[in-house]
Amino acid sequence: TSLSGILYPRESESREVVSLDGIWKFLTSPTEDQENGFRNKWYSTHFEKWIQMPVPSSYNDVTVNSAIRDYVGWVWYQHEFYVPKRWWADKQRVVLRFGSVHYTAMVWVNGKKACEHSGGHLPFQADITQLLLYGTANIVTVAVNNTLTPTSLPQGFIQHPNDTSRYPPGYILFHHDFDFFNYAGIHRPVYLYTTPQTYIDDITVITDIDGDVGIIKYVVKYKNKLMDLSSTPLCTVTVFAQNGTRITSVIGLTGKIHIPKANFWWPYLTSPTPGYLYTLKIHLNSETGDDVYRLPIGIRKISWNATTFLINNVPTHMRGFGKHEDSNLRGKGLDYTLLIRDYNLIAWLGANAYRTSHYPYAEEALDMADALGIMIIDESPACTIDYFTDELLQKHKAVMTELVRRDKNRPSVVMWSLANEPRSFRNESRKYFSALVNLTKSLDTTRPVSFVTSQTADTDKAVQFMDIICVNRYPAWYSDSGRTDLIQLQVKNELAKWHHVFNKPVLVTEYGAGSVIGMHTAPSSMWTEDYQVVTLKEHFKAFDALYKEGFLIGEMIWNFADFATPQEYIRPGGCKKGLFSRERQPKMAAHITRWRYWTLAQNS
Ligand code: GCB
Fold first, then answer.
1. ipTM for the whole predicted complex goes beyond 0.90
2. What are 15-54's pLDDT values in tens digits?
3. Which of the four pLDDT bands, split at 50, 70 and 90, describes residue 2?
4. pTM summary value
């Protein structure tokens, strides 16, 4: 049986959506007795002792307790809620949906297991119709474990050191090789939503263009919960323009719609109406009643060849950065204020693209990208894979399947990134990535597939399978530290080599320098804002030369904003390569990037 759909919960005339966000009860398991909560069935009654925890949010930075900040293992959340009796009377199907819980989650409703999921950053849900009590209090309990293993994505490693002269018995040392803090908790919204018994389970939309005609191909999948239907439901699909005007309707669970003189989806600053969205209204009529779902769509076409990346047949350069879901206090918790602030800054910079480094971002963030015309490189949570095993590959395939299922209809998503900086010099990475590319291409034939390498054209074993070469490079930072005079020469030679060895377009997915906001020297030196500015400027010159050669398709700075890392002596309180501080205020580097990106936009 194929995976069910995971459509974003949206209200309609047939669906209700209720948010369970708010302040939940929270407690940690005793470190030395991780099974305690399971043995004593913490999910079957109200917690006896707890602290308050906001949802959505990471739990790490909310308290003043380092044991909670650095906790490794099972933590528990609990919340009480009500559902109306009429949902039962009206035979509604009720679904509980989590936008993301990091990393492993087990969910109980009124003491009964509802679902489990492993992998942060992607949604999961369960039909809880039969577990609910209608018209009286319900309890939802969620056990969350942030432990990463050699077969989780990303990978992590637990050590139990036995040197008792240095570590007490039972002491856990947890480490991972990726460079950001392993925030954990219920990170994204929790929703209850209803559907009728026969419901729209999934929608797949593929768009194309022909002259000024927009083409929308769609497939609607429905499911039927209880009885067998005696006839196939009637599906009516109506297209609405952005201003709400009805354009056309067709009938059928699959179909192809032509929109004459269509408004195509264009990236930011390439059209007066970037991010133009139509609405596809799906109306399913069956003997159990009607179900209605509205899906925003953008009409656009992606193509690429050995040198060029095109949107709607127009060669397109990406101007952007890598980001993180990261901010003070909330960690990776979705925050609407931060979300809108970030998009205001993206628009201010004149950027048109970013990579969801190093994991899939919140659906709410991608909604904004769809609507503003920001191109997204949609990355899986496979950061810094060290060891390649069949077990990990199976997990990675499952994650790519979940990611494509979630984001396949988004116009903003223009490329899949399978991983960031895996150890792709290892021979095992060849088979591993070839299998992953094949799987991803079988799930989506319309978008290029890549991963982000930190290897060289001579050592990398996996880039050969990719559509586009994505490279991270830190001249004058991690190599030849302090030597900004070498940047132009090194960047030009290296990127040209990538192209000439593989005959594919090249995208710089990371480069930059750390700067502590407010720190200055002349001449510039590492960690000052001046040095970050010089580093970027030298790269700009190299990129301009390479655009003339024709194979560079874009530039992405590391990083949009400063973010939290594990505590390390190479990081002054986190990764400081942001154009903005962690509080989202501009450094000098933001101003020169703004000047560059607006200039590039005007010349394109
Ligand atoms: C990288 C990684 C990124 C780090 C960055 C850095 O190559 O891809 O996750 O944050 O370097 O600043 O060290």
1. yes
2. 999 999 999 999 999 988 999 999 999 999 999 999 999 9
3. low
4. 0.97
Whole-number Å distance between alpha carbons of 408 and 376: 12
**What is the Cα–Cα distance from 323 to 356, expressed in whole angstroms?**
6
| Residue 483 predicted with pLDDT over 70 | yes
Quote the CA–CA distance of 359 and 420 in Å, as a whole number.
9
Q: What is the pLDDT of residues 195-224, one digit of tens each?
A: 999 999 999 999 999 999 999 999 999 998
> Which atom of ligand 1 is least distant from the CA of 358?
9
Q: Is 301 helix (H, G, I), strand (E, B) or coil?
A: coil
Structural domains of the chain, with CATH: 17-146+182-193 (2.60.120.260), 196-300 (2.60.40.10), 316-603 (3.20.20.80)
Measured between alpha carbons, how far is 317 from 604 in angstroms, rounded to an integer?
8
Q: Cα of 277 to ligand 1 centre, how many Å?
A: 34
pLDDT at 1: 41
Catalytic residues: 421
| pLDDT classification of 228: cutoffs 50, 70, 90 | confident
The closest-lying atom of ligand 1 relative to the alpha carbon of residue 577 is 12
Only one residue has tokens 């593989």, namely: 502
Could you give the CA distance from residue 37 to residue 74 in angstroms, rounded to a whole number?
A: 8
Residue 253 to residue 315: CA distance in whole angstroms:
35
Q: What one-character DSSP code corresponds to residue 508?
A: E
Nearest CA owner, ligand 1 atom 4: 179
Residues with CB under 6 A from ligand 1: 179, 358, 420-421, 454, 472, 510, 558, 575, 577
For residue 422, say if its preceding peptide bond is cis, omega within 30 degrees of 0. Answer: no
